[in-house]
C-alpha cells in the first residue's frame, strides 16, 4: 500500500490542468455591451477581418458558449456593433454640426470641433470611418449612404452661401463631403501631421476661392 508521502509525491508530479476562469454572471444587456466593446477594440487593433468568435472569446476572457447565448456568429456581433457605432456617429454629428445653418463658416467651425472630438476618441470613429483592413461591403454601403445625405444637406447650404447661376452646388457639395471624409481619415490616421485646425483651414481656403 502506498504511503501518504508516496501519494503526495505522485500527486505533485502530475501536471495541474489549467481551466478557464468561470465567467461571472452578469445581466444579458451588460454582457452584450461588454462583447460589443471588446469587438470595437479588436477592430481598432486588427481590422474588421480580425473579428471572430475565438478572438472575442479570448479578448473577453469568456467561453464561446457564453457568446453564443447572445449572438449567432461573428457577423451577428459585427452587424450589431456597426448599428451601434453608426447611431453614435450620426448622433454626435447632428449635435456638433449645425445641419440647419446656411452659413458655410459655421459648418467649418463645427467640423473642426468634430475632428477634435475624433482625435480625442479615435477608436469609436475608426469603426465607422476607418476600420483597419478596409471597410467590408455593408459598412461601405452605410458610409456611402451617409455621404449622400450630407452632400444633399450641404448643397442646400451652398445655394444660399454661394449664390450664382453658374455654381454647380450639388457637385461642389459632393466634392466637399469627400474632402471632409478624407480629412477625417487623415486626422484619425495621423493627428500629429494632420491636426484638425490644419485640415479645416484648407477647407476654408477652398471655400474662400469658390466665393471669389
List keywords for this structure.
mainly alpha; transcription; 212 residues; DNA-binding; HTH-type_TetR-like_transc_reg; Tetracycline Repressor, domain 2
Task: Describe the model.
- By secondary structure, the chain is mainly alpha-helical.
- It has a single domain (20-211), classed as Tetracycline Repressor, domain 2.
- The chain has ten helices and no strands.
- The longest helix is centred in the last third of the chain and has 25 residues, at 137-161.
Architecture blueprint of SSEs:
Layout: H1 4-13, H2 28-46, H3 53-60, H4 64-68, H5 74-96, H6 104-120, H7 122-129, H8 137-161, H9 169-189, H10 196-211
Helix pairs in contact: 2-3, 2-5, 2-7, 5-7, 6-7, 6-9, 6-10, 7-9, 8-9, 9-10
Summarize the structure.
With 212 residues, this protein is mostly helical. It has a single domain (20-211), classed as Tetracycline Repressor, domain 2 (Orthogonal Bundle), CATH 1.10.357.10. It contains ten helices and no strands.
Amino acid at each position: 500500500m502506498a504511503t501518504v508521502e508516496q501519494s503526495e509525491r505522485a500527486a505533485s508530479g502530475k501536471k495541474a490542468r489549467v481551466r478557464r476562469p468561470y465567467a461571472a454572471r452578469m445581466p444579458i444587456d451588460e454582457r452584450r455591451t461588454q462583447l460589443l466593446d471588446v469587438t470595437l477594440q479588436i477592430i481598432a487593433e486588427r481590422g474588421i477581418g480580425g473579428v471572430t468568435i475565438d478572438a472575442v472569446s479570448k479578448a473577453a476572457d469568456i467561453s464561446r458558449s457564453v457568446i453564443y447565448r447572445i449572438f449567432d456568429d461573428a457577423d451577428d456581433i459585427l452587424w450589431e456593433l456597426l448599428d451601434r457605432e453608426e447611431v453614435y456617429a450620426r448622433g454626435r454629428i447632428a449635435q456638433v454640426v449645425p445641419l440647419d445653418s446656411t452659413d458655410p463658416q459655421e459648418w467649418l467651425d463645427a467640423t473642426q470641433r468634430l475632428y477634435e472630438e475624433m482625435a480625442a476618441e479615435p477608436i469609436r470613429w475608426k469603426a465607422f470611418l476607418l476600420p483597419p483592413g478596409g471597410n467590408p461591403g455593408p459598412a461601405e454601403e452605410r458610409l456611402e449612404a451617409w455621404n449622400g445625405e450630407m452632400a444633399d444637406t450641404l448643397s442646400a447650404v451652398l445655394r444660399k452661401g454661394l449664390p450664382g447661376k453658374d455654381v454647380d452646388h450639388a457637385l461642389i457639395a459632393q466634392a466637399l463631403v469627400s474632402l471632409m471624409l478624407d480629412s477625417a481619415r487623415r486626422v484619425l490616421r495621423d493627428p500629429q501631421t494632420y491636426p484638425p485646425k490644419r485640415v479645416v483651414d484648407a477647407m476654408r481656403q477652398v471655400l474662400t476661392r469658390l466665393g471669389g
